[in-house]
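quick one before i forget lol
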Amino acid sequence: MPLEDLGRLVLAKRNKSGLGIRGAAKEIGISHATLARVEKGFLPDLENYEKIRRWLGIQGEQAPPTSRKSTFDGKRPPHPLPRLRWQE
């Protein structure tokens, strides 16, 4: 299951079971605010991902799979980012 589908799957199960966001969050064991963010497409931390995955009944790996490829190659950028300064 690609991580991008997590919010859609949660919303579908919640609607199918007739649960409100607070009721589903209580069943899962996470805050309703976290569940709302997941439904909007934000990615949860690993602990919350595991709770959501179990609630959805998805067998899976420890680490969440993703269809996106990382562009991080482990090297520092050639020039550091400029420091931001407050303007008064």
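fyi The domain at 3-56 is CATH 1.10.260.40 (434 Repressor (Amino-terminal Domain)).
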